[in-house]
Amino acid sequence: KAVLDYILLDDQEKDRLGILTRPKLAHSAGREYFPWHDSMAEAKTQLESNLFTTHPVMRELIDLWITKYNHFRVFDMEDLRNSFFMTIEEFYQYLKKSCDQAVSDLKATWLPQCATIVANHKEDIELMMPNDTEGRLNKMDSFFDCLAGLMSIQIRSAVLHSIYDLVELTEEYSDGNSYDGMYLHGNQTKLLHPIVIFTDGNLEEQNIIFKPTVDQIIDKIYEIINMMLDSVKGIPRIEYQLFYLENDKQEIRFIEILRSDEELIIMAKQRIEEVVQNNLYGPLEYRSVYQPFNYLLTEQSTEDCEIFAQEEHSLSEYVEKIEKFQKMISQISILPVLVPMHLFTLNCDGANKFLINRSRVLINTLVQNIVEKSHRFNRKICDDYSDIVNRMTTVPNNTEELVKLSNYTDSLRAGALLKLLDKIGIAADNVLFLMDFAILSDEEIQLNNLTFTWPERILPMISANKHAFIECYNFKKQQINHEEELLKCEEKSTFPILQEIVSKKDPFDKLWKTVVTYNNNAKNWMNGPMLKLNAEHLEDQVMELWRTSYRLTKEFLRQDLPGPLRATSLTKGKLDKFKIYMPLIRALCNPGLKDRHWKAMSEVVGQDITPNDKTSLSDMFSLGLDKYVDRLTEISVIASREYALEKALDKMSNDWESIHFTFVPYRDTGLNILSSFDDIQILLDDQIVKTVTMKMSPVIGPFAKQVEEWEKKLRRMQSILDSWLKVQSSWMYLEPIFSSKDICQQMPHEGKMFKSVDKQWKTMMETSIIDTKAMIVISQPNMLEDLQSSETIIAMISAQDEIVELVQQIFPNEANGMVEKWLQHVEISMKKSIRQEIEDSLADYLDSARKEWILMWPGQVILACSQIFWTAEVSQAIEDNNIKQYLRKCTNQINDSVELVRGELTPMSRTTLGALIVVDVHARDVVSKLEDMNITSVHDFQWISQMRYYWEDDNVVVRMINTTIPYGYEYLGNTGRLVITPLTDRCYRTLMGALSLNLGGAPEGPAGTGKTETCKDLAKAIAKQCVVFNCSDGLDYKAMGKFFKGLAQAGAWACFDEFNRIELEVLSVVAQQIQSIQRAISEQVQTFVFEGTRLRLDPSCTIFITMNPGYAGRAELPDNLKVLFRTVAMMIPDYAMIGEIVLYSMGFVDARNLSAKIVATYRLCSEQLSSQHHYDYGMRAVKSVLLAAGNLKLKYPQESEDKLLLRSLIEVNLPKFLVPDIVLFEGIISDLFPGVNLQKKDYGDLEAALSDCIRERKLQSNPWFMRKIIQIYEMMLVRHGFMIVGDALGGKTSAILVLADALTKLYNNKSEFKENAVQYQIINPKAITMQQLYGSFDAVSHEWSD
């Protein structure tokens, strides 16, 4: 308006626009009187009096809500997401609990704050109120109505936002879960499938049903939204916070909120319902998976089984029917239990179990029918047998009954008993069926046992009954004779006819038995499986039958009985014909015939006659083999001899099955030792003689290898027994000696050697007593070799399993029990062996290609020889002024080594190359520096300040500036070397200078700067053992004195960590102890007196100390101790340089950039992430990443190096970060590794084993839990130990136990994961003392006990 008024001030513009304006009135207000002015003024006054929305209270309430409660929701969305995987009812209960808690918090905080604001403006509110009571009350009500309206709007917005948060969460799944074809788990794009729907089978609907149903799910969703609305209905208005007491009975008014019929609420419900409907297609479609089993969901299946059971069917038909149901059970069992379906997760356990139970019910219907039929059938058989027994055992009253009973008994074998045997065969089939498909009751088992034992029990009864008949006849005869005596008859009846009948009946019995036996056997002989026939047994049967028939022929001829004679002659004729084939049968039915013999026979015959399981004698006879019988017999005889040898060999093997070693407990060691084995020795000697005799047999050919192996086994057993006794004798002598801690401390090297043998011995003995069978005991892997190596020391084996042979063998038995004697021989032989290895390697270096030479010698020898040649070649290059060319040679050698690292190598060679590359890189940097500084003299300080190796007078010496130290030749194994930085070089120079002055070294500085590691690496460079000891305030001068005694005599190096933690008064005495050792070294004496004891001195011993000056509990060293050490100040090393060289030694190409990224990652983490006690960004963390990267490079040599390093950074660091820091860490690595995307790592067998073990422990296999376990596993690969932190019930212990179970399972299953079985012990540190947990120092005995 102002702009328009300004334009209209110009008359020309006014005319152009055609706008006419009224002339300005002369009225003082600048306008005329308007009729609405008074009403407007009245309204303004009314508004100023009654419009409360602009009141300060309202503004402060709005400000309070916006600043503190603007994001208030009735549930926590993030917690809800983390809690997902729940049923719809659990979803409802969770939200109800959250809503109730949220409203309770709102009442407890927001309402009092609102009340405080109103109370603070009490005076302003009073000023607004009229003076009359009625007007005051009305206006006060209006004011608080306005307050209630504002608070209602605020609560309404919070509830609406909560509801629509729930709507948006649901609509993340709006695209639904319908699918075509077969369901695939990979098609599910969501990680969370929040709502669980259960399935079950329903016979009425004949389908798989869902619990809850679709309508129940939607109703529950509506109920959830209504519940959220109802949860805020009980918030009282603000005036009840200010003016009313709890005991007031006045009705409380509540803040009005949303209604369920409002459009926004209805719209929210509709949107959620639409998502639910979209996600119902998948579950409904998934029911098609159960379509093959719909038959089980019908009553028809039950009716079919019942009808089938009522009909007559064979057992095979029953088996077919049952196997059909069992196949269904197998198919159902492999169906998944949890099926992700976008918004839903189908829990199919109910449906699966329902269908399986249905199948089992139907199977049980069929099986139970057979059980009942079998029971009735068996009972009928038993009753029939009982009837037979009852009839047989009936006592006849007269002769007629006796004759009838006798005839009945004779008829049983060919009549009733045969029928019953057929029935028993049917009963046996029934039992075999039931054994496969049913669990029989005790009653059924007893009935079956009774049924099947009847034939065996009734035959003796029949025989006994026959004897009873004869006895009965005899009794009748005697009874008649007795009556004749009573009647005083002159002659007694002799019953000649009875005797004649018995004697005449006997040939007929024999004829019957012969004919029956021949007819039954002939069929089996001719048509049965030939391979089951035994020629010797068959021939015996034939000859017995022939002899019987021959005698019967003469008998019947004498009695002139043409019928029996004809039967006998016919049988004899058949036997005569069969006897013709006996030579051929003996040749063919030989158990010793093998494939090679049948092949030879087939060559004789001219066709393949090798029999199979169904081949019969009649098949063989039809081939016309009788004309080859002589040659076939020759082959069969050879087979018999070979078979006899084979049986003898098997018998010797079987003889050992019952032979056991005897073990007896040895003292109180808890170990068993071998006792007398004279019987074993006798058997062993006997079998060795027999085996040697077998080897001279002319038919040994096919078994020559087997007999040779058996002889080797027996002779190996003899060697084992000889060595076993020798080793056991030595061990029994040495074990009490080395069980003393004092002796082990005085002879640590020898003690370590004995422990190695002792461990091996105990393992062998513990394995032996598990199964004491002689052949099993001696079958332990490498038992003889281990015993012989224990008996004679022939080589050194490092902790890395590198073997270095000794130049001279050590025989502990020759020391006559003086342990220190043969252990000294071991030490001398060790040094000679390493020196010899170096000498031989130096000669081989000139004759072999360096790439081949590196892999041919022990790692320690390779490093020493390489440094010797490097020193010589650099010196020559300096003198020839040819350093630049030699620098190229150094670079090429490193490239060759790196190329080897990237190839296929043994773990031992890879360790050697890693250490060699670290040393060679430093050597190259030294040459590069010499070239940059234009060094031309071998006496220049820049050259002599380097560590140089020389081969002088057939020995290795190490020089640095003016210090010359002889190489120690102590075998340290094949280990890595420390990356040599400028700080390391400076420390080396100081320590070497200290050694030349017979002083100790004292590196000091903060943790993680390499103080101890530098001392240890210098010891490796000089080939000296360095013992690291962590000091504490509990040490006294006596304990330190024992330590110094051992060092002085052994010539070892010692590094005392945290030296300044020892108490000041102890340090003063320690200074005198160290000074006495250093003075003896300076005086070059061979023995010296140390605290009253004369000791042998090895002048190569050295003492280093490390200190952290700034830490609490550290003391300042006394002056008399300071002067005995040269101090070295250690600072934080160059992480980038260390990382670059280590990565280079592991085969990485882009090592420089990758190391820079490691350093940048930790620098940014230390700056941006929160400060936690367990966060560590120092050298130890860098080392873990490098180790993990090396492992990944070895496993995935062709993978991108950026991906390998990124994965190692994530695996090492992610597990220890808190949730808020994970986002920052992911941002850091995404900036440092742009565009690098990692695929999910496949853990294969490990994930499967973890899932199995989680189920076995009745836990839930959710992704978070699985991920944490895998993180623990990854951390285990790069850390010696670690700490798992978290709230109670967070799954810490369960994760460890599941991982232990899984690794043990992988070990037992011989998985590609090279893991070992896990042993673990869970302790509560609060339940035991500090001394029990960590050990303690005994002030009396000065021994450490734990």
What is the secondary structure topology, with strand pairs?
Elements: H1 2-7, H2 11-17, H3 37-50, H4 56-69, H5 77-83, E1 86-87, H6 88-120, H7 122-128, H8 133-171, E2 195-202, E3 207-211, H9 214-231, H10 239-242, H11 263-278, H12 281-286, H13 299-310, H14 315-333, E4 338-341, E5 344-347, H15 349-392, H16 399-412, H17 416-437, H18 442-486, H19 496-527, H20 535-558, H21 562-580, H22 582-588, H23 595-605, H24 617-621, H25 629-655, E6 663-666, E7 671-674, H26 678-695, H27 704-738, H28 741-746, H29 748-768, H30 774-777, H31 783-791, E8 793-797, E9 803-810, H32 819-847, H33 850-854, H34 859-879, H35 883-901, H36 907-932, H37 941-944, E10 948-952, E11 955-960, E12 963-966, H38 982-996, E13 1000-1004, H39 1011-1022, E14 1026-1030, H40 1037-1050, E15 1053-1057, H41 1064-1082, E16 1087-1090, E17 1093-1096, E18 1102-1105, H42 1119-1122, E19 1125-1129, H43 1135-1145, H44 1151-1168, H45 1179-1195, H46 1201-1213, H47 1219-1232, H48 1245-1256, H49 1263-1278, H50 1292-1308, H51 1330-1334, E20 1336-1337, E21 1344-1345
Parallel strand pairs: 1-2, 2-5, 13-19, 14-15, 15-18
Antiparallel strand pairs: 2-3, 4-5, 6-7, 8-9, 10-11, 11-12, 16-17, 20-21
Give me a quick take on this structure.
By secondary structure, this protein is an alpha/beta fold.
Walk me through this protein's architecture.
The chain has 1346 residues and is of the alpha/beta class. The chain is built from 51 helices and 21 strands. The strands form 8 sheets. Strands 1, 2, 3, 4 and 5 form a 5-stranded mixed beta sheet that branches. The model has no long low-confidence stretch (mean pLDDT 81).
